[in-house]
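Q: What does the assembled structure look like for these inputs?
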Amino acid sequence: MTAAIPATSRTYDLSFARWVRENVKGGDKMNLCMQCGVCSGSCPIGSEMDNGPRKTFMMVRAGMKDEVLSSTTLWNCTSCYRCYVRCPRGIPVTSIIQGLAAVAAKEGYADKEKVSNYYFSKAFWWSARSFGKTDERLVTMKYFFSFGLVEGIKRALANLKIALGMVKAGRMHIGMPHSIRNKSQLKAIIAKAAELESKG
Amino acid sequence: MSEKMKVTYYPGCSSEATGRHLDESIRAVMPEVGVEMADIEDWNCCGASVGHIGGGPLPTLALNGRNLANAKKQGNEHVMTPCAACYLNTHGSNLTIRDDEAKREKVNEALKAGGMEAYEGDLKVHHAMEVLVNFVGMEKIAERATNKLKGLKVAGWVGCQTVRPFAETDDGGNYDTYEEPEFLDDITRACGAEAVPYEKKTNCCGGSVAVMKPEKTLHLMKLLLEEAEKAGADVISTPCPLCQTNLEMYQDAINAKYGTNFHIPVVFPSQLMAVAFGMDPQKDAALQRNTIRAEKLEKLAKK
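A:
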């Protein structure tokens, strides 16, 4: 005789998983995940992540929205795409992790103390939007100083030797940022895209 | 390929800064093997690995839409970029615009706000390495390489993004595999140098995380250097501008942290080609821009 199936005390809330499926790039493929773990096992920087992609996917299914969006997994992805190309079910793992990071950034889950990627991304986007190009010097400095004046100076000095080497090799210029010509056009395009994105 | 190929060239932001030697050597060697390049008019940033976080997915797609729409106006169906991140974003965005009607409409609405014409995703986006593999061919490189790099041992480090994940080309098929790509060693050999065994070919250096938090990724770069040293490589060759800069500029930090003594030059395959083509070591191969100078390669260069 087999034992009676126990009544579960918790129910899964699928509303977050459904939301991810419809709003995150690649989220529609997440249902295919069979929890094999090839993604997390392939990650070069998994040691820096609390959960890794495999567990993150299960947490999405379990409706653990806050835990997923405040997870360090989202902020340590190097975008090497090894999980993406190795997934036996063809799930675009990297895209989903990146998409969740974008959601977390937008929803205010990024904590300055542990989420350097968020501040780096903001500095990067500032340059892309202002000049149409990435100015590696300004992005790095803006990023360093987003942790305060003292920390900024400390980090800048720590990288001084590298910077001087780059200047000497002609790989870091002195002077105004490189810029596209039609900045107003780019700004109009980005503003419209941001508006459309916020409408969903 | 017997006839010439014309491409619209997307240099990417690093071409004006840390990746100048990639841009300069690509501009030098491509015409030598029959690839004519014209820059995308007023090109902008692709969003790299963090644009989706800083600005959001749709604005990042729109950035790429602007480049592609500008390339489209120039009337050539082929777009080529030498940068891994530019390739990933441009190629990926091109596919999204082509295949996803809802996204295409939104991108075109954004482009319209900037006074630009709609873009339908009908260009073909290529990585410069793919162009060398599929359009130029190794025979042509070997034929042009009159100054063979005899005795130079090269570790071919492809990096990650160059062969992932949209390496399915616009002309169908891959230009190489994700796990064990061979094209980089083929280029090394076409230049007359020796390709040493290098297992960690597609290992990641940490990418932009290495820039923002190097302490998290130094161990990844240490693996790459150890393997190259074990193989007896004189230089590491990589097609990716961020890989090149990371692995070069953090060797001091790695030595300080792990008590190692690495001093391995990291060059681009296009720099090897420029030297093997007998071209100018500074103007064409841009060897003076490597902060760890590739002395053995410099000695092989025609003065």
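Residues 183-199 of chain A form the longest helix (17 residues).
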